[in-house]
Amino acid sequence: MGVWERGSGGEGRTVTAAGFSLDGRVAVVTGAAGLLGWHHCHALAHAGARVVITDLRAEPCAALAEDLRNAYGAHGDNVLAVAADVTDPASVAALRDAALSRFGRLDVLVNNAALNEKVEDPADGAPVRFEDFPLDLWERSFRVNVTGSFLCCQVLGGEMARRGRGSVINIASTYAVVAPDQSLYRREDGTQSFYKSAAYPATKAALLSLTRYLAAYWGRSGVRVNALSPGGVENGQDRGFVARYAERTPLGRMARPSEYEGSLVFLASDASSYMTGANLVVDGGWTAW
Fold this sequence. Notes:
Elements: E1 3-6, E2 12-15, E3 26-29, H1 35-46, E4 50-55, H2 58-72, E5 79-83, H3 89-103, E6 108-111, H4 135-163, E7 166-171, H5 199-218, E8 223-230, H6 239-247, H7 261-268, E9 279-282
Parallel strand pairs: 3-4, 3-6, 4-5, 6-7, 7-8, 8-9
Antiparallel strand pairs: 1-2
Helix pairs in contact: 1-2, 1-7, 3-4, 4-5
């Protein structure tokens, strides 16, 4: 069943699943080897896109490319795996050139690559308070999360603007909108097992500002720029943390990794054709209270 729309001349038309199709379009996903990156690539391929998979290391990119071919019967020409460093302008330019050489166009960019310290995988096992957070890690976070997205937008998004069409999706976070709740990481005995750093929220908030800037800058060039802010994903965290997160969330649970696929395809496709400069928050209601 479609949704009824009234056109400017009074005529109506039905929006169907065809509006979500990405047939023939070329989508680049950075940080593709990560948990959500894997799902982003599968969602785009399932919607018909030709997917350019990129991450720092070649091996996981090649493995994901093979996974997509096995899952969707895609021929080799529909998937491209390219190792790239998003913080290196020459590497990003080489990524662009490889994508254009294979497919001749760019239509979608998903800026997913990011550094994110995780409660399930702390760097050294010891909680680090804000007062002791290392400057080099702060600067590295900005280098990857903000500068990396800036360079990909500049080089890959710039190619879309040159062609007059495209969709850029910056993967932000609920922590770009609200502060981390440090009590989530507090054990029952009152001790703190982990502190979410200031670096991740600060970089993701900067990414929202970049999103709005580019939406305004490229609006007349046919390139839409939006952000997708996911909530927490259940991924092997300890049971206490999962329970505390669920209690803090209106839907009463953490997200499954696949639950952002529909939102991503929506932003990439013509289904969101009048949407730019927006931040699509998909968080189970986390930021509602």
